[in-house]
Design a protein that fits this description.
It is built from eleven helices and 14 strands. With 375 residues, it is α/β, with parallel strands linked by helices. The longest helix is centred in the first third of the chain and has 20 residues. The protein starts with a strand and ends in a 9-residue tail after the last helix. This is N-acetylmuramoyl-L-alanine amidase.
Length: 375
């Protein structure tokens, strides 16, 4: 038995985004079990778990409780950017680290957070670069009414303008709202080329179901004509859609349908998580285990040195983590929904993180702008 090290787990097991949370928790707990069973790893993780129960106030409370009443200095947790923002002051005050396994809106790099899922240059930018030439540049933007929706749509507005398109509408719903009739009516009236869906949980499921009904009435809204695009929809939520999502597109660093041989690097482990959320949470635990195996007392000031010049073997492939921003280099995959799975339609390996889009190039992404002749 290796040295016992407590590790925090902070995921809700109920609430509007329960399916996402359970997927992350499953990945983290599976990785803990695998680490503890691996004789080559000289540590044993002891999970210290708190359940915020879907209440935003519960994340800061749970984080503080873990850091104050256990030996855990590292926490795997949080789903929404709202919850991540809530715990950062606690982490800064107590000297903890959050390993965050969900896509987010970018424009953040906190030394107390390790960002193990995609940022905008790894999700939204390549997704729109793929979609605009195939469907058109005029979009309708949807979001849950908090920072993920606001900021992702802010970036989308700029990208759509760069592509020569127009934002034909932008609407937000409170978390958990399922009355989407107004959204459907506006989308039908404006007839965009695509819908960017930054709703989460039950709001997203309700919208996708209603949009499928719209497509039955109006062929313009079939996925081959006007797809729904998502940066955060994964396999763990597809059963909730009852195939209403068929044909629509999502982007992420991992889809379950790809074989290990096709993943980034040549040494991806045989474990095949069910979604990118599960894979990123698993990768968080395994990466932390590698670091603590070398330095059992490693805390947040030690992480940049631990990341420098190192690659980590994960279900996402062999990844590296930028010591300056603490964001992971990840593959980018675009997938089309087919039943309860995604069919991968595009893969780009080894995309370095650019959370502030400082290296974004409009021409490289969308080509040269078309010039209008003005008489």
């Amino acid at each position: 038995m290796g040295r016992r090290i407590e590790i925090g787990i902070l995921y809700s097991r109920s609430g509007n985004y329960r399916l996402l949370s359970e997927s992350c928790r499953s990945g983290a707990m599976t990785a803990i079990a695998d680490v503890n069973a691996d004789p080559a790893i000289p540590i044993e993780f002891v999970p210290v778990e708190r359940d915020p129960q879907g209440n935003i106030d519960g994340y800061a409370t749970g984080c503080a409780d873990i850091l104050a009443n256990s030996g855990a200095r590292h926490i795997i947790g949080c789903i929404t950017s709202w919850s991540r923002k809530e715990v950062i002051p606690i982490l800064e005050r107590a000297g903890g680290t959050l390993w965050y396994a969900c896509p987010y809106e970018g424009f953040e790099a906190n030394e107390h957070v390790v960002y193990m899922h995609a940022c905008p240059n790894q999700h939204l930018v390549p997704l729109l670069a793929h979609v605009v030439p195939r469907f058109g540049a005029n979009g309708f933007l949807l979001g849950s009414n908090y920072i993920w929706g606001w900021e992702t749509n802010r970036v989308a507005r700029d990208l759509i303008a760069d592509a020569g398109g127009k934002v034909l509408g932008e609407r937000y719903l409170p978390l958990g709202e399922v009355d989407v009739s107004r959204l459907i009516a506006e989308i039908q009236a404006t007839r965009p080329d695509f819908i960017l869906n930054n709703l989460i949980g039950s709001s997203s499921y309700a919208f996708i179901a209603a949009y499928a009904e719209l497509a039955k009435r109006d062929p313009h809204f079939r996925p081959e004509r006007c797809p729904i695009l998502s940066c955060n929809l994964t396999e763990c939520e597809l059963p909730a859609l009852n195939e209403a999502g068929n044909g629509h597109l999502s982007v992420g660093p991992y889809f379950h349908d790809m074989s290990a041989a096709d993943r980034q690097g040549d040494s991806a482990p045989s474990v095949m998580p069910a979604s990118s959320f599960e894979a990123a949470a698993y990768a968080s635990v395994r990466t932390l285990a590698e670091i603590l195996a070398r330095n059992p007392g490693a805390q947040w000031p030690d992480l940049p040195q631990a990341f420098a010049g190192t690659s980590f073997r994960t279900p996402l492939g062999d990844i590296s983590i930028d010591p300056q921003t603490q964001h992971a280099t990840l593959p980018v995959q675009i997938g089309r929904i087919e039943g309860t799975a995604f069919k991968t339609v595009l893969v780009t390996k080894g995309v370095a993180p650019d959370p502030y889009l400082s290296r974004y190039d409009r021409t490289e992404t969308f080509g040269h702008p078309r010039l209008r002749v003005v008489s």
